[in-house]
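anyone seen this seq b4? input:
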Amino acid sequence: MLPLNQVFVSQINKLKILNDPIYGFITIPNPLLYDLIQHPYFQRLRRITQMGLSYLVYPGANHTRFHHALGCMHLMQKAIEVLKFKGVSINEEEENALLIAILLHDIGHGPFSHAMEHSIVEDVHHEAISLLFMNRLNEEFHGKLTLAIQIFKGDYHRKFMLQLISSQLDMDRMDYLKRDSFYTGVAEGNINSDRLIQMLNVVDDVLVMEEKGIYSIEKFLMARRLMYWQAYLHKTSLVAELILTKILKRAKELTLKGHELQASKALLYFLHHKIDYDKFDSDVLSKFSQLDDFDIISAIKSWQESDDFILSSMSKMIINRDLLKIKLSSEKFDKDASTALIDKFSKLHHCSIQDAKYFIFKGKIENQAYRKDAEPIHILKKDKSIEDIVEASDQLNLKALSKAVTKYYLCYPKQLIES
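predicted toks r here
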């Protein structure tokens, strides 16, 4: 007789259908994918927002990375279906591996991911952590993720499979543009993912877009450019993320000096230790898997009462949405202007120049919708020749979209100008 827990597990229907506001019904096609979704590592993504602090600008942008990953899996199902219909050979093992790889492509994101990558951990990017999670899951699932990992790393001989997961026209970008556009209400980001997927094909192991889909790609690239300016690099979202990075940097600085701060056990571990990729062992990965947005927001709420002027002031900025002023310019800001603001703040608050630099700082952002130095988007022309989208398009603005646009920012307390 089987133990009760095994009987219970065997009776669970793992072929689920989920309702998604973007695509309608999403199916979980097999028990392995269901078990991966049910795993605590993946469930953690429910507690990590897709767009970080963008909800401070767009109140509806509270969707999660869990939501996004399922959307990517759905689009991959559609892409596989289209390619197989067009005669591209994809066996059952490869199909399953593609679905696993796209489902888990973002599993390494930490809370408010980009702020984490520059403060709590030492330049360990989420892609590297995703791979660590996938390797751990592969051990737990007795090697069933091996092919998915090979594709994810680019080690599999069928090149187009990696392009479906990571390229300039992949399932990841198709989902996040459409999803982020929906939840922010930024209509300019809405793309026709169905049309894009229907136009996909494979020639000589390379993912291509049939020529009749060229206008859909132009719309896709333009949507990407506009979403970056209006959502991802919106100046309020940008300054909020910069402040969060400063908060975490300051918290770590204080902790390493012996100050006791209130935070969850998992967050305290990363505040007390300098963690780079070489130190990201199994134990660190387990601790990282306990971190989510709630750890950060809960800590910031308590840090408002900190004795440290910098930590408490900046924590209040995030909690109360009373942010630093940010100015954007196509020209670099004069060094003397920021120096004068730093001096003024230092005298006003009786703090050191070094401390004042937490509140007054500058930098730059870059927006490039299409990179000519990366794997191009290939257009399959009617004569069977293949051309880069920029050369194939009759739209001059695509050449402009392939050029990086740089903007410079200066952040400072608005009271400095008013006083």
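The radius of gyration is 23 Å. The chain has 22 helices and nine strands. kinda curious what u guys think
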